[in-house]
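User: Sequence recovery, please. Input:
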């Protein structure tokens, strides 16, 4: 019998100023997969075709760039990793996947995190594994190593997360799939990749006042996360670390208070760990940070780089159009950068799978 499901994954903003690789919030832009396949016995390891087959179609953001080859596409590669690590060596028969993506790629809104979460959920549903979200997070962290985006996209809401320190054996197992499964031409292999260690990622949902909205000002160019991580130093001075700790502790509570305290939040969203090193990747960013304060716009709460950038995220309870227009103008005038903007809300639900009626 043909089975049909829809997988919905929200975008996410990571860091929110001082919470580098710690804080994430899922927001109301989505990647959806409409999936159908012939539900039946899974192929035995010895009878699998070397090349995985799935009919993949795609619309929305990234249509020109994203590969439709299931052995190249991040979503299908991740799904295959989940399946193969549990002994299911191929996709089911007559698998068809239509991805519709509203999350712009390489802009700091967690497009890769959403693709990884979608891939893990796809592998789970195709294999019928019924994994818990905690276990899915382990799988996500085998592919995307910082937990902030994937934890927020998977769980939903405003999320703080950390990675457990792994034993040497677990660390070894954790390093295998990335190199052997995703970065290598694994699709020709019949070996079963190792499963992730259990409990790699830990998280807690934090309160976020629903009146706080996220204005995403999205420059019309991409910054690859790998490039934006490569510019960061490998060690920091103690005053800079303490500066971030102090603000991070305050911010995790401040965004949950009503009414939000604009002065407290604006200060608490300052950062010395990643934004100063990334500013040359986004011309005009220092001017944006210097120009817009709670004094210049009532209702404005704070501003930061979204994830690794280049999107700028302004939090506010009012004056959304004016704040967005001001950021766009500063980016244009000082950096020569064109941008679009959109108003997003916290998405509390996180990634989910919906059964659809067979056609
Ligand atoms: N829907 C998708 N389908 C397939 N691959 C995708 C999809 N979305 C993103 N990717 C892959 O992820 C890459 C972008 O990842 P990158 O980490 O650089 O940016 P980001 O996730 O948008 O930003 P950030 O991590 O800062 O939030 C794309 O170039 C593409 O390879
Ligand atoms: N915490 C990550 C998020 C980007 O995916 C970073 O800032 O590099």
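Assistant: Recovered sequence (359 residues):
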């Amino acid at each position: 019998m043909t089975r049909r499901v829809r997988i919905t994954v929200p975008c996410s903003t990571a860091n929110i100023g001082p919470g580098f690789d710690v804080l994430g919030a899922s927001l109301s832009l989505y990647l959806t997969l409409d999936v159908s396949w012939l539900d039946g016995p899974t192929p035995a390891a010895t009878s699998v075709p070397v090349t995985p087959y799935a009919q993949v179609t795609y619309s929305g953001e990234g249509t020109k760039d994203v590969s439709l080859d299931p052995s190249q596409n991040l979503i299908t590669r991740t799904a295959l990793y989940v399946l193969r690590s549990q002994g299911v060596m191929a996709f089911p028969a007559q698998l068809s996947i239509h991805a519709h993506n509203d999350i712009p790629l390489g802009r700091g809104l967690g497009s890769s995190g959403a693709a990884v979460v979608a891939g893990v959920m796809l592998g789970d549903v195709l294999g019928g594994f019924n994994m818990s979200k905690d276990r899915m997070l382990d799988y996500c962290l085998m592919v995307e190593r910082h937990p902030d985006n994937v934890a927020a996209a998977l769980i939903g809401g405003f999320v703080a997360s950390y990675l457990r320190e792994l034993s040497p054996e677990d660390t070894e197992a954790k390093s295998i799939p990335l190199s052997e499964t995703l970065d290598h031409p694994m699709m020709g292999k019949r070996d079963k990749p190792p499963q992730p260690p259990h409990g790699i990622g830990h998280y807690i949902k934090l309160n976020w006042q629903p009146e706080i909205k996220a204005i995403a000002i999205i420059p019309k160019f991409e910054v690859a996360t790998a490039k934006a991580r490569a510019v960061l130093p490998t060690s920091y001075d103690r005053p800079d670390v303490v500066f971030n700790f102090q603000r991070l502790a305050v911010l995790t509570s401040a965004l949950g208070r009503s009414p939000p305290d604009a002065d407290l939040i604006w200060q608490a969203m300052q950062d010395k760990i990643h934004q100063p090193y990334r500013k040359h990747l986004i011309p005009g960013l220092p001017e944006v940070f210097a120009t817009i304060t709670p004094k210049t716009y009532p209702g404005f709460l704070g501003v930061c780089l979204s994830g690794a950038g280049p999107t700028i995220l302004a939090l506010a309870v009012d004056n959304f159009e004016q704040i967005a227009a001001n950021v766009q103008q500063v980016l244009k005038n000082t950096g020569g950068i064109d941008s679009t903007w959109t108003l997003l809300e916290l998405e509390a639900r996180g990634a989910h799978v919906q059964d659809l009626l067979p056609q």
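Residues 210-344 form a domain with the Alpha-Beta Plaits fold (CATH 3.30.70.890).
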